[in-house]
Design a protein that fits this description.
Layout: E1 3-8, E2 14-18, E3 38-41, H1 51-89
Antiparallel strand pairs: 1-2, 1-3
Length: 90
């Protein structure tokens, strides 16, 4: 259910109310008791950043670097073999 914030025009108290968009709510301030004094204020969206995603990226990067380092010599040898085969055929 969506969450909306309302502020009292008299005492400036802020209240969070959960309700559907088309549902009518009571706009009397709970704090000071003024009738129909609540008006809806804009919410800033909540964006939660997850460290697990960044950690996965770091882990993937580390695994890739490790793989490259471990296989660098093998790749060099394969390139040399390919070059030697080309020169042997001509």
């Amino acid at each position: 259910m969506p969450r909306y914030r309302y502020q009292c025009e008299k005492c400036e108290n802020i209240v969070t109310i959960f309700h559907m968009l088309n549902e009518e709510i009571e706009t009397d301030c709970v704090a000071c008791g003024h009738e129909e004094s609540l008006s809806r204020i804009l919410n800033t969206p909540i964006i939660k950043k997850s460290n697990s995603r960044n950690k996965k990226k770091q882990d993937t990067g580390n695994i890739t670097k490790k793989f490259i380092e471990e296989n660098r010599e093998i790749l060099k040898n394969q390139k040399k073999e390919v070059k030697n085969k080309k020169y042997d055929k001509t």
